[in-house]
Specification:
A seven-stranded mixed β-sheet has the order 14-17-18-13-12-20-21, with helices on both faces. A six-stranded mixed β-sheet has the order 9-8-7-10-11-23, with helices on both faces. Helix content is about 40%, strand content about 20%. By secondary structure, it is α/β, with parallel strands linked by helices. The radius of gyration is 23 Å and the shape is globular.
Length: about 500
């Protein structure tokens, strides 16, 4: 138990806020107010009330941040060796660990997620910078054999200024998985965190500056998507955009990027299937299903939001699942319940609307199904963990991303039907399977369209494993060495000798 963490939790629960939160955009190595003077509020989802204010950015602030990034690339950062970049990122990883308690409490307070989950996100962010610190001086081109009269080789060059549009469900870890490889490659960054969760990205930028990152290399502009995000993605001096968010917004970002032929990595929605075969270890599968859908109150693009289960074990498994769910505590994220709040009143209304539609259509609700009002957080935004039986592959509960603690159940007969069920949506981000038969597992992994497949453990892997989707789940890859190459442009050089 950390005394610092406990003190911060006590302060936040007692006062509804924390002292010393970042104030202003972080541009050119310092916190600055919005040029237009605008301010916004950030809400604590566990209380349903504002806890702090922050700068509301506009196109003028974006212009200032992009200009600072351009200057930084023309200065010492553009001349830094890969090893020097790696040393800065290693120092940043250490500073994240040194400030882990405060980062985790702020992340929980701002996003609503359980403190234990926020602590895991902080550890993952530190690991991301550590991983890419080690990769910075190992990114190299290739020699091309052209015969005795030529020398041919390739060079991986930094793409330039990279925009990062960061979502509200994983503010710190999503920022780290994009910003760390961008910096390792030698890029400069302008980040726009979600207006619901701005603070840990601002804290990260300040820590990066303390770690020795030159002014202007890592800038953060806060504000709404319309007033700050859109000008950033439409900026002609942006060389690359990494966007994580909804399909509809991703389409608009892609259309905007086309005007300037700006490179993109899009990580969009998901409706990921988790298959449980009759031969699976039932306890491991049950634990895996619970984690896959109820972590972060189901607000994960890669959540296992569809249980695809063989008919012979379906009734017993669902009964056990519903029984486990009845005992789950619901409450403020800083109190570490089993299920925390959803991020906003709008998100709560969206989740409730999906479930009410399913009820009206005749779907069986096996567990949950209602807005929750826990006694110690009655004004927060909570939804009961819910299991809904699907009426068929076209059922909206199967096809539509809900982004909450709602699990759709599809019953199948055998592996072939499980594969067909897994592939029945427009999304193709993640898939999982529980089975003792590795032949079945590998057949499933090959046949299901997904960017990554988990076998006998959902959310397996870490920063080393490439992540991204296909079809309406987006394109491009983050994490791993593929994520580093996303921030590079390949140059070929050929010389006659």
């Amino acid at each position: 138990m950390s005394a610092v963490r406990d003190s911060l939790v006590e302060e936040a629960l007692a006062t509804g806020t924390l002292k010393g939160l970042p104030d202003g955009h972080f541009i050119d190595g310092r916190f600055v107010a919005s040029e237009a003077g605008g301010r916004m509020e950030s809400f604590d989802p566990g209380r349903g009330a504002a806890f702090a204010g922050f700068a509301a950015g506009t196109a003028a602030d974006v212009d200032a941040a992009v200009a600072a990034a351009r200057r930084a690339l023309a200065g010492e950062w553009g001349r830094a060796t890969p090893a020097e970049r790696g040393r800065v990122l290693n120092r940043l990883a250490a500073l994240i660990r040194d400030n882990a308690d405060r980062l985790a409490v702020v992340e929980s307070l701002d996003s609503g997620k359980r403190l234990v989950e926020a602590e895991g996100d902080v550890r993952g962010a530190a690991r991301a910078f550590e991983y890419y610190a080690g990769a910075a001086d190992k990114l190299h081109g290739a020699s091309i054999p052209l015969g005795p009269d030529y020398v041919g080789f390739t060079i991986e060059e930094p793409i330039g200024v990279a925009a990062q549009i960061i979502p509200w469900n994983y503010p710190l870890s999503t920022a780290a998985r994009g910003i760390a490889p961008a910096l390792a490659a030698g890029c400069a960054v302008v980040a726009k965190p979600a207006e619901q969760t701005p603070f840990t990205c601002l804290m990260l930028a300040e820590l990066a500056h303390r770690a020795g990152l030159p002014a202007g290399v890592f800038n953060v502009v806060t504000g709404t998507g319309r007033e700050a995000g859109a000008p950033l993605t439409d900026h002609p001096s942006i060389d690359h955009i990494t966007f994580t968010g909804s399909v509809d917004t991703g389409i608009r970002v892609m259309q905007t990027a086309a005007k300037h032929v700006t490179r993109l990595v899009l990580e969009l929605g998901g409706k990921s299937p988790l298959a449980v075969m009759a031969d699976a270890d039932p306890d491991a599968a049950l634990n895996g299903v619970m984690e896959a859908i109820f972590e972060n109150a189901g607000q994960i693009c890669s959540a296992g939001s569809r249980l695809v289960i063989e008919r012979s074990i379906a009734d017993g498994f669902i009964d056990r699942l519903a029984g486990r769910m009845e005992g789950l505590s619901i409450g403020h994220g800083l109190r570490n319940p089993a299920i925390g709040p959803v991020n906003s009143a709008a998100q709560l209304a969206k989740i409730a609307g999906h479930v009410e539609q399913a009820k009206a259509a005749g779907n069986i609700i096996h567990a949950g199904g209602n807005i929750a009002r826990p006694s110690n957080a009655a004004d927060g935004w909570f939804f009961q963990p819910t299991v809904v039986a699907a009426r068929g592959v076209k059922d909206p509960i199967v096809q539509e991303e809900i982004f909450g603690p709602v699990l759709a159940v599809q019953v199948v007969d055998g592996l072939d039907e499980a594969i067909a069920a897994a592939n029945c949506t427009d999304y193709a981000l993640v898939a999982g399977i529980y089975t003792r038969d590795l032949s079945k597992a590998y057949r499933y992994a090959r046949a299901v369209d997904a960017g990554q497949v988990y076998i006998n453990e959902y959310f397996a892997g870490g920063i080393e494993v490439p992540f991204g989707g296909n079809r309406k789940s987006g394109f491009g890859r983050e994490k791993g060495m593929e994520g580093l190459r996303s921030y590079c442009k390949l140059k070929s050089v050929v010389a006659r000798i």
